[in-house]
Amino acid sequence: MEKTIRKIFDKKHISRTISYLVVIGGFVAVQLLMNTVGIKSLFRSLLVPTCCYIVAALSLNLVVGVSGELSLGHAGFMSVGAFTGIIICGVLEPYLALNWLRLLIAIILGGVAAAIVGLLISIPVLKLQGDYLAIVTLAFCQIIKSLLNNIYLGIDSNGLHFSFIENRVSLIPGGKMLLSGPMGATATTRLATFTAGFLLILLSLLIIYNLTYSRYGRTIMAARDNRIAAESVGIHIRNTKMLAFVISACLAGMSGALFGLNYSTLQPAKFDFNLSILILVYVVLGGLGNITGTIIATLILYALPELLRGLQDYRMLIYSIILIVIMLITNNRKLKDKTDALIADIKARLPKKGSAAHD
Amino acid sequence: MAFLSYLINGMGLGSVYAIIALGYTMVYGIAKMLNFAHGDVIMIGAYTAFYCLTLFKMSTFASIIIAIIVCTVLGILIERLAYKPLRKSSSLSVLITAIGVSYFLQNLAQILFGTDPKVFPELMKNSTFSLFDGQLTLSYKTLLTIIVCILIMIALTIFVNRTKTGKAMRACSQDKEAAQLMGINVDNTISITFALGSGLAAIASVLLCMTYSTFNPTLGSMPGIKAFTAAVFGGIGSIPGAFVGGLLLGIIETLTKAYLSTQLSDAIVFMVLIVVLLIKPSGLLGKKIHEKV
Amino acid sequence: MTKLVQYPSGAYVLERDAYSTPVLETYHLGIDFGGLSAVNNFNIIVGPTEISGLIGPNGAGKTTVFNLLTKVYQPSKGTILVNGHDTSKMSTVDVNKAGVARTFQNIRLFDKMSVIDNVKVAMNNSMNYNPLHAIFRTPKYYKEEKRIHQKALELLDIFNMSDLAETTAGSLPYGAQRRLEIIRALATKPLLLLLDEPAAGMNPNETKELMETIRGIRDKFNIAIILIEHDMSLVMNICEGIAVLNYGRIIAKGTPKDIQNNPVVIEAYLGKPDQED
Questions:
Q1: CATH topology for B2-119+139-279?
Q2: Across all residues in chain A, what is the average pLDDT?
Q3: Which residues does chain A have within 8 Å of residue C93's beta carbon, measured at their own beta carbons?
């Protein structure tokens, strides 16, 4: 028991402990607020999307931060997961009354679908490097959006009806359109819950941390730090990066499924280039490879425009200015040297106090 | 004959892409950054020209010149204020800053000019002329766009290869430190590159508005992404590459819309890009960089 | 002490290695860069316990030879046999699995990772668990991670670096970085170790220490070593066979003594006597 506790608060694992504490603490705090003081419906409506964005950002961090490849098409995987989840739920609705089970199946299959798409995409994508890799992920995101914009899918007592580009789906009465081209999903049963979002974040933390602290995490980071050296010690770069890419796609798909089932209507255009960029901003500002940072950056940056809602039209303008200023400050060499010196100073003083307490 | 007319229309669209792509590619070549705000400079150019024409009742020529000046100054300002302090930072930091600048310009435009689409005044009559006994009909606008693009391309090639500033730009794009040691003012050279790219964006904005006739603050987004794609397609950093990439992208897009599917044209354009990059991983005219071991 | 015997092909090999399969054989190995031949008709045979040196003036193509042997570059022509297996068509990864490990002239460590993780990466192919074991932390994961941790520590200990196990590799002093690169290469259990200028940037004392280390590696791990080096005292002291490269061609082969007295080698390094005035 003592060994376990010591391990949890071990220096090496402290960042992991903090991540879990932040997430669990956040969940408990929100639950308490909801059950005592109550929270505004605006905030209540933000809970599930926040969870989804956190999971999406965490999964993107695996590719951009840990694996070191710039991906500009993360929203594509979310959309694959979202619409798979919506379809699965629509199909299962008559047969499965348990909402949570339907949601669970939808999230899992959404993840699986996104993982398969991720695997297929990773084959060409990982042949490229740097900015060329980035543009191809962007291209795939556009292709996915474009294809989803043209899918018409309906369900009635005869089963599923599908058509592409033109809506030729005719349903017998009682039937329901699941996807209608650019309109997307129009009558989804909202199944997503905050608890599901919380559990999904925990699952992503588990997968990402356990993978990072294993032989796979080591090889992924080695391939990032020095490609040629990694190959020279027998690391297969493409397989290594593919693992990170596919797991990232899978988690993004799961977050997408939860996201999709949080709204009664959802258009494919929601998952565009801007969403990919938005998630990328969370990851970069949270610190590449820094998981707690990613969670906190997502919380603040997602909440920021909502908090600025009072300023109406100016909120996005202020948001963009804050974004630029943060980048300029965090990259300011003089300022960085000063803060580094300050942190070193504090660190130098701390152990002395600690030992004094022991005496 | 229909094919020929689609081809020429595609070249018209491609010419606009090419002019925008030149801005991306020149900036990438010298600053090694993806200037995501480039598309929004186009939008600012469009509003400048629009207000010069409608509010101040200026002549077409004067309006275009003012748009060019405004965009050039804007380009230099963006570079000096937002990108220059980050020159030694990671490329991702610069990318995020560029995204910030892009959001800033878009939202500023929304506040200043409103989100409702504006109708761009007609600069030249939408007249057409026929060739081959009326079998081939072309509009003067398309022809003008192609000619403008070719002229820009020629002028730019001469500028980069023959003038002192152009040579300084090429030197900086290869090795900034060596260029500095040779007495080249790197900061100024980078600013000039941004200025040039932004000036071209202003020309592109007028050409875009002539084609689409209405525009709003998100005008630059889609052409921006397409032109960026075109620049990569041709080999980012290469000026002839941007020209070829832009033209090809325009042609592919137009032909796809004509013969395959309007709804899927974007998907097909991007698929072609992926296939090209798989065959030529550094674009059509891009140089392959070998890592020294 | 060292004695070379000649094969019918004309190649030399150490007497004690003469009856075992050579660890490395190259035949007519060559590469062109844009029509310019960087390495041409490169033929060597290295015995399984030999320390050999590859020397030559700057730009002679020494590192290119290493890049060819490890398939960082694709040879334009020729054959490479590692322990009797043809590796000419293999990838860098497979060449390493076949038994060739190397260090780099400009140190290439995994800078942001700890010293021990650098070693563990190189031991990755000897580990046996899949991603699901990692994600769900099965007993197999713990068993394997413990085993590899122990092995990595043992290896670091041989080189007196186990104290630095948790240090970030990029923050190590220069000499320690070079040592870690050698340890990392050894962690892949190679038959042949290629060292690219291991003594570069070292002072005479450090070089002397390195000399002992290299000999120690050969004796302890029982492997062959080829090193590229400009420090002639080091090369002449520890190498048993030497090949001299100039303009991408081997101009001389033999024992250190042969090489020291070879007029062709002296000319390549110092130029022709009549060019001096």
A1: ABC transporter involved in vitamin B12 uptake, BtuC (1.10.3470)
A2: 88
A3: 231, 234-237
